[in-house]
Amino acid sequence: MRLQAIRSALLAWYGSARRDLPWRRTSDPYAIWISEVMLQQTRAAAVIPYYERFLRAFPNAAALARAPQEQVLAMWAGLGYYSRARNLQKAARQIVESGEFPRDYDSIRALPGVGDYTAAAIASIAFHQPCAAIDGNVRRVAARLAGSNEAGDLPPRLLDRADPGRWNQAMMELGATVCLPRAPKCGECPIARFCAANSRHAQHEFPAKRARPHPIRLRRTLLLIRRGEKILFTPSARVKGFWDLPETIPGARIGAQLGHFRHTILHRHYRFTLRLAEAKKIPPAGRWFDPGQWAAIPLSTTAKKALRLAP
DNA sequence: AAAGCGTGGGT
DNA sequence: TACCCAAGCTT
User: Fold this and answer.
1) Is residue A191 classed as helix, strand or coil in its secondary structure?
2) Which of A28, A137, A162, A285 is positioned for an S-S bond with A172, CB 3.0–4.6 A?
3) Where do the structural domains in chain A lie, given as residue ranges?
4) Would the Cβ of A2 be found within 7 angstroms of any atom in strand B?
5) A208 touches strand B (CB under 7 A)
């Protein structure tokens, strides 16, 4: 494999074709860490507004460490995989405790919520350490390049030791914009001439696809219970740490149907019906929030969708 | 080590 | 509509 020729071709392409993403304008390890955690299993386009708001609210590890967890979850609401937000804050407290952001791969890897990929990304981008960051994009690019689903040794061999952070981002950018999972744009690919899969017209064979759990369809009713401007919320039955509209309240009088919406949580496909209701006795865990408070509390996505239907 | 964890955009 | 799957980590 012509490693140096591949490096030159990909880096030349990255120099001219990369997207302008906000986390590429910083060299602050804290900001790079936040962006990498937000990007776990999440598209760049979805991350951008969250990244900007989060850094404004919590500009450094100390600010994140001292914030109430409710405020951190409220900022994360809608981004998904909420254990990321809890781990982020746990890690921020460790960083403040230790006095500085960890600078080497092993110490970064030891932070809660940071696995092999994220540690390598931070170490290479923020600290110029020679670590290959291997995410889903890089695995796919490597598998096609080598024409094999056992190409795990390729990313570290290919890593550009002169600028590992830039190299890792170039590999991921190629996977995210050109070497796409279902319909790769091989005609636009700067390294197609080195690609074993492309030469055999076998791009679709890589990577091997995994089995998925079969979908489950569910129906649920949410209740809209008002007291003046305030609405009754209860702890979410689906997403830990979030507030949702109640589903059932003993003795409640169920009234008019206000609308429907769909919501999927992993393989569970819900169809929700929103109904007006009145309740004499409310559950002890219930709390009343008016619209002015909704931005400051962790509100589940189902509650947000339901409230859009409320007259 | 397989399974659980969210959501939204693309096809 | 239905399905795919994304800059993964934890237990």
Assistant:
1) coil
2) A137
3) 3-205, 216-309
4) no
5) no
- DSSP per position, A205-250: G-SPPPP-PPPEEEEEEEEE-EETTEEEEEE-SSSTT-EE--S--T
CB under 8 Å to A226, separation ≥6 — which residues? A232
Query: A69 is written with which tokens?
Result: 């967890």
Residues 244-273 of A with CB under 7 A from strand C: 262
Cα–Cα distance for residue pair A224/A201, rounded to 1 Å: 55
The pLDDT averaged over each successive group of 10 residues in chain A (311 residues) is 95 96 97 98 97 98 98 98 98 98 98 98 98 97 95 96 98 97 95 97 88 92 96 96 96 95 96 96 95 96 96 79
Which architecture, in CATH terms, is A216-309?
Answer: Alpha-Beta Complex (3.90)
Are residues A163 and A7 in contact, defined by beta-carbon separation less than 8 angstroms?
no
Q: In strand B, which positions have an atom below 7 A from any protein CB? A: 4-9, 11
- The pair of three-digit structure tokens given for residue A206, joined into one six-digit string: 């890589």
Q: Which residues of A carry out catalysis?
A: 36
The model's pLDDT over A138-152, given as tens digits with 9 standing for 90+, comes to 999 999 999 999 999
Considering all nucleic acid strands, name the nucleotide whose C1' atom is nearest to the C-alpha of residue A38.
C7
Task: Report the largest interatomic distance among the alpha carbons of chain A, rounded to a whole angstrom.
Answer: 75
Q: What CATH topology corresponds to A3-205? A: Endonuclease III; domain 1 (1.10.340)
Cα–Cα distance between A311 and A309 in angstroms, integer? 6
CA of A2 to C1' of B4 (A): 41
Read off the amino acid at residue A30: Y
